[in-house]
Request: fold
Amino acid sequence: MTPDQLRRYGRQVVDWIADYLERVETLPVQSPVAPGDVRARLPDQPPRRAESFESILRDMDDVILPGITHWQSPNFFGFFPANSSGPSILGELLSAGLAVQGMMWITSPACTELETHVLDWMVGMLGLPQAFLSTSAGGGVIQDSASSASLCALLAARHKASLGTVRQRGVEQRLVAYASAEAHASIEKAMRVAGLGSRHLRLIATDERHAMKSDVLEETIRRDQATGLHPFFVVSTVGTTSSGAVDPTHGIGQACRKYGLWLHVDAAMAGTAAICPELRDVHRGVELADSYCFNPHKWMFVNFDCDCLFVADRSCLIRALGNSADYLENTASTSGKVIDYRNWQIPLGRRFRALKLWFVIRSFGVDGLRDRVREHVKLARELAGWIEADRRFEMAAPVALNLVCFRHSGGEAASRRLVEHVNREGRIFLTQTRLDELLTLRLCIGQTSTQRQHVARAWSVLCDAADQVA
Reply:
């Protein structure tokens, strides 16, 4: 493809994306295809000769689009937001065009320094501790997801615990970690990946708001210590996936300080709320954290993938994940004056993710981001009020931010029929979970283009369906 062809086809692709975003609201939110339908439309063998770009783009409409569940629809209320926005799309496009391999400062200084600078911006925007600034002993790094960020934090904590007990035989076989029973499944996966295993993870009971009981955590830590185990790592979740519950990070952090454990705060979606000063209660106690992560790609209108991981002491992370090789040596790295982010993550290579984050912050402005978040929280609370006032429904959990959890008052079977009915119909999309062992419907408000009219329409769809499935 020549530069001239790139210009011509690039305009067509941008037009295709713009047209898609303009009409996505009219499309069935959940893809209607059956398993195997997409592959059945594809040829058995790859083409031997080059095909025209026009035919490739035509197949986007004919083959790919029917198999898309439309996460960017304002009627998508399932799982969690996986947002996009015009500025983020264009930042991602520029990142692809530059094709930077940002593993070290020398491989593209702007890739590293923009990332460091934008993450320092995020510390101020979220009201995070000054210890997370790059000018301190800590700093921030962009990971692909909160799953990777939590794994990196776990590995740093394991390395620190092992160094502190280097003379104790088999210390890693006695390491124990702790998280809420409502914590994300990626925490258990991280324990397996790290070689510690699921049996070394304690899932702590939750209260009536589905948040971790810090007193039970402390009792469990003491009991494990008494049996010769080595507690080393605790996850406090700010906004659990099932209900949006916020763990009591302050109380958890005090227990971690008392017993010498690493505290990691997983604020994957809910962390974005702290852009608004009046919502920063979700971060109470985060000053006690050793590490913290949140996903701008969930509720801050940045394309996946983009997770911000902050650490209070970068040396722990670098000692756990850093390595060297002759082919990576260079004067800038050995000078100690630059950051090489390859030592802050699992893989060697890394993309120029900071561009899209930078584009979004500058294009929306902090005030613009706050306005969107506040509107989503307001809409969630308004929807909760409608549910509470309607005898066909019942609330299943308090509304902390932008997630509304509810059930059909007719019981579990009716709730299941309700979610299946509305998703099959295609006008909105919801997901489900279990709270207190009961099937629970989740309606998450956070898409970039979602407005009150979309939430009102979703409520109308739910009301119509509730009568049909009762």
